[in-house]
Amino acid sequence: MSGEGDNVEAEVFLDARGILRVSYSQGVRVGIRNVRSIIERHKQLAAGRKVPVLVDSRHTLSMSLEARRAARAEEVVRVTSRMAIIVDGPISVVIGHFFLRVAPPRYPTRLFTDPAEAEAWLLRGDPPGSSA
């Protein structure tokens, strides 16, 4: 993929509804370099405010521990209101929930297999602590 907002393995852009979208390329193994690039673009597009984030991880093969840690950093917390992660099936949901329990982000985060449900949850904007 190429164009404004892209890095080597992900497209990153703010859509018309204010959702920051991160879509990984097919077969990528997400490492710290990828996440650092995405974080910089996220901060730029968020312009100092918290925005909902939709990560489409259906095409990724893996994500390194270092990359997962970077994605939970304070600089991400400051520009993320909530995050929906699209995964490709029930096994991915189980694995994803394991990682979210071991090292939970400091913003509401949910896993989805249906992109429309993920978008609806992001736009609903339930206050933190409510049952989302």
What distinguishing features does this structure have?
132 residues, alpha/beta, Transcription Regulator spoIIAA, five-stranded mixed beta sheet, two-stranded parallel ribbon, 5 helices, 26% strand, globular, disordered N terminus
Strand proportion, as a percent range, falls in 25-35%
Order of secondary-structure elements? EEEHEEHHEHEH
- Major sheet: arrangement of strands: 1-2-4-6-7
Q: Provide the low-confidence segments as ranges.
A: 1-7, 128-132
Task: Please indicate the count of domains.
Answer: 1
User: What is the third-level CATH name, the topology?
Assistant: Transcription Regulator spoIIAA
Residue-averaged pLDDT: 83
Task: Summarize this structure briefly.
With 132 residues, the chain is α/β, with parallel strands linked by helices.
Plain-language structure description:
- With 132 residues, the protein is of the alpha/beta class.
- The chain has helices at 32-46, 65-71, 74-77, 90-102, 115-124, and strands at 10-14, 20-24, 28-30, 51-56, 60-63, 80-86, 109-112.
- Strands 1-2-4-6-7 form a 5-stranded mixed β-sheet, sandwiched between helices.
- A hairpin with a 5-residue loop joins strand 1 and strand 2.
- It is globular, with a radius of gyration of 14 Å.
- Residues 1-7 and 128-132 have low confidence and may be disordered.
